[in-house]
């Protein structure tokens, strides 16, 4: 009996002493944690997928409270999580447009090869071997570094060039960082018209290396009524804030490098419409000069 | 209640004890205690060094406190059979303490070690050191030195293995079926074999 009492008492007293010691220590070694961090952390899905670019949901929560990450930084949580986090942080939820990644290159099988490439099937490796296997120094090599970087299966190589599946893309930005030619950027999801070329060489040089390269002819610029597309550095660029998705520039482009690429029928219709407009303008000018 | 303390140890004895703990009876490579954290933390040399430091600290303190608990509480009260649970209590408290301390003063290391810091609690190496102290009848100074030396032996093994592992992952041309964990296990086994060379080493001090 005595033994049992000794055993129980000694262990209980030791346990109590250690607990007091730990409690004391936790006060001394208390770490200042912003109370919003666990609250924000609760609003996140907790999958630790890394799609936000931060180390796990804990990392993103800390970054949001520190102000280095946007409130809608979690692509998996989406708008629902963003609203809850905005409530915790006391700010208005960002009413931004949904962004998706886009690869600005249609080269691939349309672009000429410098030589047969036999090496690591990775763009970041290939670019170190004389700038990659394509003649075009700016174009997609189609070796799939971006495909490997994407955690959401949103990138695939089609016809030798990378293509983004806008349904699956969550705009985490990993492919943007991975592409050694810097061909990928984030565009608003509602914009469907894109210039698929980044070749900054002059027209004849660009034509030599790729069938669908932008030659800087400015037909698109002349056609656009909304001042949304301009040719800079021998390549067309769209201002997405002004673009109204009318697709006229795509139909006007002689090389077919603006997406959505028009079918032959559409091009005919467009050419006919342009002719009709030119006729009308001539007649109007003639009528004016007749009046005057 | 009668207290019975072991006799004091000479400086020569203590020194040869330390060498034995580091090389001859290395906790991971010879006694095979504490292997889970050994394989878990040895991905990078920096985190391995940090983990080693934490283990040295915990082992030294655990050796001291468990020695005191044995000779002041358990033996006098005839509670030798409570040894395991009492020592685990001590070690758990110490590891909690180390965690709090690290979180406050070394947050980067705390983030790097992650789950492995609480794993030291259930690490058989720490309990093994505490129990070996008692079974071999070391004095208080001897126990503390043994604890520190065991920690140093652990650190030595984990840092060597981390460097090997870094090289294995980066450069080795490995058959596909051995890539990753299998070849690391084989490397650890070879390392353990090399430490067999120390067996039987005793310093005439």
What keyword list fits this structure?
heterodimer; A: 292 residues; alpha+beta; 3-methyladenine DNA Glycosylase II, Chain A, domain 3; Alpha-Beta Plaits; 3 domains; two-stranded antiparallel ribbon; two-stranded antiparallel sheet; 11 helices; 8 strands; 40% helix; B: 205 residues; mainly alpha; 9 helices; 70% helix
Describe the structure in your own words.
The complex is a heterodimer of chains A (292) and B (205). Chain A is α+β, with helices and mostly antiparallel strands and 292 residues long. Chain A has 3 domains: 36-89, Electron transport complex subunit B, putative Fe-S cluster (3-methyladenine DNA Glycosylase II, Chain A, domain 3); 97-190, 2-Layer Sandwich (Alpha-Beta Plaits); 213-283, Alpha-Beta Plaits. Chain A has helices at residues 2-28, 36-43, 56-66, 78-89, 123-126, 145-149, 174-178, 203-209, 219-223, 248-252, 264-291; strands spanning 99-103, 155-158, 161-164, 184-188, 194-195, 229-232, 235-238, 258-259. In chain A, the strands form 4 sheets. Chain A has a two-stranded antiparallel ribbon with strand order 1-4. A two-stranded antiparallel ribbon of chain A has the order 2-3. In chain A, α2 packs across α3 (56-66) and α2 (36-43) runs antiparallel to α4 (78-89). The longest helix of chain A is centred in the C-terminal third of the chain and has 28 residues, at 264-291. Chain A is elongated, with a radius of gyration of 29 Å. The mean pLDDT of chain A is 85. By secondary structure, chain B is mainly alpha-helical. The longest helix of chain B is centred in the C-terminal third of the chain and has 32 residues, at 140-171. Chain B is globular. The mean pLDDT of chain B is 86. Chains A and B meet through α1 of A and α3 and α4 of B.
């Amino acid at each position: 009996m005595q033994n049992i009492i000794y055993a129980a008492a000694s262990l209980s007293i030791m346990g109590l002493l250690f607990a007091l010691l730990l409690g004391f220590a936790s006060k001394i070694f208390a770490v200042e944690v912003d109370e919003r961090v666990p609250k924000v952390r609760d609003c996140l899905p907790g999958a630790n997928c890394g799609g936000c670019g931060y180390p796990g949901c804990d990392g993103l929560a800390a970054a949001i409270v520190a102000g280095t990450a946007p409130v809608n930084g979690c692509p998996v949580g989406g708008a629902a999580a963003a609203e809850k986090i905005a409530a915790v942080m006391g700010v208005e939820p960002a009413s931004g447009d949904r962004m998706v990644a886009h690869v600005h290159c249609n080269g691939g099988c349309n672009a000429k090869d410098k030589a047969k490439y036999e090496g690591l099937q990775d763009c970041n490796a290939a670019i170190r071997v004389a700038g990659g296997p394509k003649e075009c120094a700016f174009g997609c090599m189609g070796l799939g570094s971006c495909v490997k970087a994407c955690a959401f299966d949103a990138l695939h190589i089609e016809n030798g060039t990378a293509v983004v599946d806008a349904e699956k893309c969550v705009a985490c930005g990993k492919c943007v960082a991975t592409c050694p030619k810097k061909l990928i950027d984030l565009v608003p999801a509602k914009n469907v018209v894109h210039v698929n070329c980044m070749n900054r060489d002059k027209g004849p040089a660009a034509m030599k290396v790729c069938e669908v390269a932008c030659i800087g002819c400015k037909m698109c610029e002349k056609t656009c009524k909304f001042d949304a597309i301009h040719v800079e550095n021998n390549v067309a660029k769209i201002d997405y804030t002004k673009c109204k998705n009318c697709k006229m520039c795509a139909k006007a482009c002689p090389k077919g490098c603006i997406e959505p690429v028009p079918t032959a029928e559409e091009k005919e219709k467009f050419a006919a419409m342009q002719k009709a407009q030119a006729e009308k303008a001539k007649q109007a000018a003639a009528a004016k000069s007749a009046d005057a | 209640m009668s207290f019975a303390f072991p006799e004091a140890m000479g400086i020569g004895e203590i020194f040869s004890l330390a060498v034995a703990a580091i090389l001859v009876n290395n906790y991971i490579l010879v006694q095979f205690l504490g292997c889970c954290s050994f394989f878990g933390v040895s991905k990078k040399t920096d985190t391995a060094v940090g983990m080693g430091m934490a283990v040295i600290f915990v082992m030294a303190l655990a050796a001291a406190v468990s020695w005191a608990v044995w000779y002041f509480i358990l033996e006098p009260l005839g509670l030798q059979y409570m040894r395991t649970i009492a020592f685990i209590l001590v070690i758990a408290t110490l590891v909690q303490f180390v965690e709090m301390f690290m979180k406050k003063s070394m947050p980067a290391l705390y983030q790097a070690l992650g789950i492995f810091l609480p794993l030291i609690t259930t690490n058989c190496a720490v309990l093994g050191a505490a129990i070996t102290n008692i079974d071999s009848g070391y004095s208080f100074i001897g126990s503390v030195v043994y604890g520190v030396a065991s920690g140093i032996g652990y650190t030595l093994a984990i840092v060597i293995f981390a460097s090997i592992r870094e090289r294995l992952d980066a450069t080795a041309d490995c058959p596909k079926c051995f890539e990753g964990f299998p070849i690391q296990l084989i490397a650890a086994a070879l390392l353990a074999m090399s430490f067999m060379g120390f067996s039987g080493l005793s310093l005439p001090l």
